[in-house]
Write a structure and sequence with these properties.
By secondary structure, this protein is mostly helical. It is 69% helix and 0% strand.
């Protein structure tokens, strides 16, 4: 974003000189600097508002995807949910998950693959 800086070493404007009538209104350097600063700030505000809209759209998309995933996971068996939570929510490895779920590691991998395939099937069905 542009930095707005107003100078304080402007020279004065002689408003009483020739050509200062209605058609030739003189503007001081200070007024020009303030006008320029306002234009910069207005552009920055437009950029920020556009960025806010993009972020709000991204949040909306994430919330929609999250609700889809919650719906899909609620329809799964409890043991499948527990395996997926252990692997992804709590970021445990397959060995730790197999110990926690009292299953062997190969079963954990099979259940994980089954859940991923089922989830992809649901997501492809709705999209």
């Amino acid at each position: 974003k542009s930095l707005v800086r107003l100078e304080d070493n402007f020279t004065a404007v002689n408003y009483g000189s020739a050509g200062g009538g209605l058609g030739g209104i003189k503007t001081s350097p200070q007024e020009k600097a303030v006008d320029k600063a306002f234009l910069i700030l207005e552009r920055n505000l437009e950029d920020v508002n556009a960025e806010i809209l993009l972020i709000e759209e991204q949040i909306s998309n994430i919330e929609a995807e999250n609700s889809d995933m919650e719906y899909i996971l609620k329809g799964m068996r409890r043991e499948h949910r527990e395996v997926m939570e252990a692997l992804y929510k709590y970021e445990r490895g397959a060995v730790k998950t197999s110990i926690d779920c009292n299953m062997d590691r190969a079963t954990i991998y099979r259940k994980k693959n089954k859940v991923i395939k089922e989830t992809m099937r649901w997501l492809n069905f709705y999209n």
